[in-house]
Design goal:
The chain is built from twelve helices and six strands. It is an alpha/beta fold. The protein has a six-stranded parallel sheet with strand order 2-1-3-4-5-6, sandwiched between helices. The longest helix has 20 residues.
């Protein structure tokens, strides 16, 4: 059901698109992929981030599959809910419509985050958030090191501030396409309660819960691909049947 389609991937807070690599390696060869990247040399506010993403999307097809991860969930919701981007469906991974942990973000404002991000992260901290054993921990440590060389700490801190203030709930009821929410069962960044807004407000929503950490596309690429394939198959069949 995915063959010949175009997937537009909107990345997490790092904005590099590196997080798409594990899933991209197992996609069918005839799928077209557009990976959106956010700039590393400027501090965009939320509206500017939405515009940047829109300007980066090359395809103008209505049958786009938009896949948005974490930080980019609100970006995709705003793009599609406002009618700025036409798509066939929207897949949201481990994301939120408003700040997922407001109390934590208030605490973080008091910390020297620029300095903390530059410091080496203890392996035990990665293991706490990833829950995937030594192999998965090494995978994410390597990915994080690559991100740190590409994205200045001040940019990451700025995007954390965007997350702390974001609220696109008013767009959820305006989403004109079927949506799949992939929930990470052991997500320690986005709490399970973040799903409630989607369940309450999105007109056409399906939810798939997959065992794994917040970085679900990277930790469980095959299970994620199966969920995406099944979802696209359902809506393709419904469209063919005139439903």
């Amino acid at each position: 059901m995915l063959s010949g389609k175009t997937i537009v991937f909107l990345p997490g807070m790092d904005g590099t698109g590196l997080s798409f690599e594990p899933l991209g390696k197992i996609l069918p060869q005839d799928i077209n992929v557009e990976i959106i990247q956010y700039p590393t040399d400027r501090l965009l506010n939320f509206k500017e981030t939405v515009q940047w993403a829109k300007d980066q999307i090359q395809s103008d097809q209505k049958d786009l599959i938009v896949l948005a991860e974490s930080f980019s969930g609100p970006v995709a919701i705003d793009l599609i809910g406002s009618g700025q981007l036409k798509a066939n469906c929207l897949i949201l991974c481990a994301t939120f419509a408003r700040s997922p942990r407001p109390i934590l973000f208030k605490v973080l404002r008091c910390l020297p985050l620029d300095l903390i991000i530059r410091l080496p992260f203890p392996k035990s901290l990665f293991r706490h958030f990833i829950e995937g054993g030594d192999q998965a921990t090494e995978l994410f440590i390597n990915m994080w090191q690559r991100v740190k060389t590409l994205v200045p700490a001040r940019v990451l801190v700025h995007r954390l501030k965007i997350i702390s203030r974001v609220d696109v709930r008013e767009r959820l009821s305006s989403l004109p396409v079927p949506c799949l929410y992939i929930q990470a069962a052991s997500d320690r960044s986005v709490p399970p309660s973040s799903l409630f807004d989607f369940v309450e407000l999105v007109p056409d929503l399906r939810v798939k819960r997959i065992k794994g950490p917040h970085f679900i596309l990277q930790a469980q690429p095959l299970a994620s691909l199966h969920a995406i394939h099944h979802f696209v198959g359902l809506i393709t069949t419904a469209t063919a049947d005139g439903g």
